[in-house]
Amino acid sequence: MKFEERLSDRDAWSIGDGCSAGRVLDLLSTKTVFLVVRECFYGTTRFDDFVTRIGASAPAVSRALKQLKAAGIVAPVVYREPGSRARDEYRLTQAGEDLLPVFLSLMQWGDKHLQDGRPPLSFVEAGTGRPIQVRVIAEPAPETVCDDIEIRLNPAWQRG
Fold first, then answer.
1. For 12-31, what is each residue's pLDDT tens digit?
2. Cα–Cα distance between 6 and 152 in angstroms, integer?
């Protein structure tokens, strides 16, 4: 990447705390927070299921959900099973859904550089089976949304 001419002197300017990437990292500040978002993309909605699937403590998951709720990434939806008290499920908001490219980019990078060519999951277009890839493009292209993606277990994957 190159800076436009008026920004070429890096000592003459700073965006400091205004950096969007820094703000995203502040929001997704812990592994638990990021894994809660991952589980939301995977369809997890209930507190106990987050705890089980992430393997984090209940207090850590509770803090993560509160942080994501305060940031408008997840929203609670009340449900009630017969004979039980009302409880909250957590669902991604539009802002949460907009994290899909961020999530997939990190997965794609990890698949390429950390999995020795054997990632556990693949993400494909549900209708065609074509692999989903995140790319930097210069012009608008058709957008793929969560409901268009199928997650598959890679047959070649073997646990570490």
1. 888 888 899 999 999 998 99
2. 47
